[in-house]
Structures are given as C-alpha cells and as structure tokens.
Amino acid sequence: MSSSLSSFVHFRFLWVFVVVTFYATLGEEAVAFGLNECGVTHLVTSVELLETKLKGVLPQIPSLRHIIYVDRKSISSAGYPQGIQIHSMHSVQELGAKPENCKKGLPTPISSDLAVIMYTSGSTGRPKGVMIIHSNLIGGMAGQCERIPGLGSKDTYIAYLPLAHVLEMTAEISCVTYGCRIGYSSPQTLSDQSTKIKRGSKGDCTVLKPSLMAAVPEIMDRINKNVMSKVQEMNCVQRTLFKLAYGYKLNQIKKGYDAPLCNILFKKVRALLGGNVRMMLSGGAPLSPATQRFMNICFCCPVGQGYGLTETCGAGTITEVADYSTGRVGAPLICCEIKLKDWAEGGYTKHDKPHPRGEILIGGPNVTMGYYRSEGCINEDFFVDENGQQWFCTGDIGEMHPDGCLQIVDRKKDLVKLQAGEYVSLGKVESALKNCSLIDNICAYANSDQNYVISFIVPNQKKLTALASQKGIEGTWEEICNQPIMEREVLREIKEVATSIKLQRFEIPVMIHLSPEPWTPETGLVTDAFKLKRKELKNHYLNDIERMYGHK
To answer: Quick one: 320 exposed, middle or buried, by C-beta within 10 A (0-12, 13-18, 19+)?
Structure first.
C-alpha cells in the first residue's frame, strides 16, 4: 500500500463514490481540513496511520461514519468518537460477498462525473483538492501511454510512489488497462542496498525484475551517486575501463548510436534495478542532465523526462524513446496543447532569441476542473478559451525548441528579486548544485532585502566523513556537520561546481548550513514526491537563516 490516505465522498444523487486522496505526510491539521472540506463519510487507511495520524483529529470530522483499515489486525473501537464504525478490510470483503448485499442496476458514471479529488501536498499553505473527472483520466492516460511503445501484458511495472501522486495513480490504472503486471515496493526497499533491506537479502527490483519504472529525480540522483561512489572504490584497471566505456558510449549516444560491447561492462549496474528495465520515466521535478545521461548510459535503456501536474492529470509532455537529448521534457502529448505566455517581470517573452520563452499554459481534455471549493483559485489558475477548451496556468517558465520539444527554464514561484535588483531562480540553483559530490540534497534561500543567496544542505555522509578524516576532524556525524571547517569545504566545492557550469555570481550561495538529518516525507520537509516544502524548510531553519543573514 502506498503511504496515502484514501477517502470516499458519497454523492447521493448518483450513488457513485468519489475517491479523495491525501498524502499521509500532509500533517494532522491539513488532513482534517481536507476531510471536512469534502464532507468525507468513509475512510480507508492502515492501522498505523489511523493510530498515529488520525485518531486525534477524528472528533473534528463530523461527517465521517465508517473507517476501514487494510491490515490483518484487530483494533478496539475504544477511544474513537461515537457514531464512527471501524471495519477491517477482510470483514468488508465478506460483507460484499453475500448475494443480498450485491446491488444491481446501479447507474454507471459518465465522462463528466467527478472521479477523484486529489489533494496536492503543496509547498506552502493549505492543501488544495484538484477535481479530476473521468474524461480527464482517460485523456491524460491516452496521452501518456502513446509515448510508451509496446506497452502490454509482457511488461512488469514496479510501483513504489504513493497512489496519492498523480503520476503513480495514472501509471497503475494504465497498467491495469493494458494488462501489465504490477509489483508493489517502497523507496526504502527498491534495491539490494536500500535502507530497509537486510544485508545479504535481495531488494524488490532484484526479485521482481521490472521492465518499466517511474521515478522522481531525487531517487535517480541517489542511484547515480551510489554507483559513482562504488566506481571510485574500484582498482585502477576497473576504474579506467569503466571511464573509457562510459566516455565511448556517451559519444556514440550523441551520434544516435548504441555501444553493445560497452553494455556488457554496465551489466552489474543494470542489475541494481533487476537488469530488465526497458524504459524509465522521470517526473515531478527537473532531472539534471548529468543524472539523465548517467541513467541512459549505465542502465542501457531510454530515460525519458515527463512534464505534467496534478492539475493536468499528470499529462503534458514526454520525451520520445529515440530522443537522447538532456534537459528537455519532450513534445506535447496527443491529449493536450501547450502555449507560452509572456512574463514581463521575469524577462521572458515569445520574441526571445534563439527560442520563444514564457509561462507554460496547458489546455485539453486532460486539464482538470479546478480546485474543490476554491472559486478564487479557479479564476486565477484555470480559464476556458473562446472554443470552450479548459486551460491551466502552470507557473513554470518554458522554452520551446524548433523541433517542438519543451525545456523548463524557470519557475515563477521560485523567483526571488535580490536587494540589488537581480532575479534568482532558486530551483535553477538547486538543480545545478546537486552535481556536487558532497551534496545529497539542497534548498536555496534568498530574501528580497538581502543581496546574496544562502543554502541548507543535506551532505553525503560517506563523502563528508572521509573528507573530515582527511582534515583530522573526528566526532559524531552531527558534530562533523556543525564544524565550521566542513562548511567551508562544502562551500569551496559549491563554488567550483557553480563556476564550471557558469552560474552567475549572485546565484552562488555565500553561506550554508549542513543538516545531519536527511529530508524525508516523514520529517515534513519534503513531499512524498521529494519536492522541497519551502515554507516548512524556512521555519525549520529559521535560526540558521538569522545567523547567516546576520553575518556575511
């Protein structure tokens, strides 16, 4: 089961249940808000989430009548509000198996009926419930599946993202539609080296041997760094052979060719994901060109980027299988249109050279109906054109290439104007600096009343510990991270990487804070798709922000 809460809203006039999804990491207040906003009557969850996340807020949900837990455990109803009945999934299945409970002749939904209200985890503020109708789902999946050649019953898909994530939900429904097998995993059990896999045991990928896989950039960045770390531990001959094969295949790919002999050397790397993956799709955030190229070469399969949002049912663009270019997210899918809108404040217009740029607008049958009970947001983010087509204003800045492929170059909400008038794209800075070997994760931060950028960083424990040892620094992991010398060393590498990829001087962080604790969905600092929650990160590191902006 994914780490999400599924709820049902019962619309009496249709006798059709609408599924409402919540990330389990939204927090009690946010979940209570969403449950009340939708008037939820039935809730499906696990015993763990019920006891740790929900029990305390249930008195605030007056519409809730039934809770169904999926575990094979039994729990007492003591301590739960009166009027709420608690059922095990097994008992519900037994109830449904009785002939007298099988209702016949119920009306089936039509294309315009509401199918899902998907609450986005969001970076700031209250969660927003995106209203997805049945035709949105069909349109979005039709567009996505058209870009996956040969999709069918021979494929095996490994599912480990939450079902409350639109990419995972549409991927799994598509697999069921096309007859693909689905194996359920989690980010902590994917590979043999995963954190919740006992030493000597096999990870889920090794056992399942999937042929299809969806991933978020954070997962791919981890795989990249783990493999390159092992390369550094090889003896001189092995390391030289790997680098020669990598360089040769890179040149071949740039020419549009493969390198079958080199692929033999990458067999052990492919085995990390079972050795049978024929296509990978990255979505949710920009994938760095270096990581995308690494996955293309070492896993010997196309690694495409997709672009879409919950508000567009996960559909927008996906790169073609034969497109080995990096940094781009492909051409529009058959289910939608894309156009660019001038954004004067950021300096992006359709007249820009060499390619037109602007805010990305997506229109088509996959564009959802807006946010549940948020009329103000509907007027701002969604609109209907003169032809009756629904459009969504993404807030992302794109650049359209001559071949019709889109590149994401900026984000309106990530743009901060510094005191001296320069605009800094925080997402751009973070994407660039993730190439630092000492960095596992990074959040850039800037204040408009200051003239420089600072950053919070989750360092790579293995690399930083080794560097500390070279500098004669000993202690616990937390003590190493709090050493000013180590901050200076990480900052030095940041400046080297930033200079090599030609970041502007004002974009390079001047001060940093090293966090010994990784950012996981459980900490509440990132979403289940590992997107940064900027508001929560700012609050978490408020003392460090004051320290770094108090002393330059």
So the answer is: middle
435 close to 421: Cβ distance less than 8 angstroms: no
- Same domain assignment for residues 352 and 473: no
pLDDT of residue 9: 54
Nearest to 283, CA basis, from 180, 170, 191, 366: 170
- Does residue 175 sit in the same domain as residue 247? yes
Closest CA to 64 of 48, 47, 49, 44: 44
Question: Exposed (0-12), middle (13-18) or buried (19+): which is 461, by Cβ within 10 Å?
Answer: middle
Positions in the chain short of pLDDT 50: 1-2, 10-15, 123-124
346 occurs within a structural domain: yes
Show Cβ contacts of residue 350 under 8 Å, excluding neighbours closer than 6 positions.
340, 342, 356, 357, 358
Q: What per-residue confidence (pLDDT) applies to 188?
A: 85
| pTM for the model | 0.80
How many degrees, rounded to 5, is the angle at CA 16 between CA 11 and CA 20? 75
Beta strands 181-184; 156-159: pairing state: parallel
Place of tokens 């042929």: 211
Which DSSP string do the residues of 312-360 spell out, in sequence order?
GTT-SEE--TT---SS--BEEPTT-EEEEE-BTTTTB-TT-SSS-EEEE
Please state the length of the chain. Answer: 552
How far apart are the two ends of the chain, measured CA to CA in Å? 47
Cβ-in-10-Å burial (0-12, 13-18, 19+) of 494 comes to: buried
User: Is the domain of 106 the same as that of 192?
Assistant: no
3-state secondary structure of 205: helix
* Per-residue confidence (pLDDT) for residue 453, from 0 to 100: 94
Q: Is 456 helix (H, G, I), strand (E, B) or coil?
A: strand
Does residue 136 sit within a domain? Answer: no
Q: Is 55 exposed, middle or buried (0-12, 13-18, 19+ CB in 10 A)?
A: middle
Q: Are 62 and 40 in contact (CB under 8 A)?
A: no
Q: Are residues 436 and 528 part of one domain?
A: yes
pLDDT value of residue 380: 77
Q: So what's the pLDDT on residue 123?
A: 45
The pLDDT, as a whole number, for residue 8 is 56
Q: What is the pLDDT of residue 551?
A: 58
H helix or E strand, kind and range, residue 455:
strand 454-459
Give the distance from CA 382 to its chain's centroid: 23
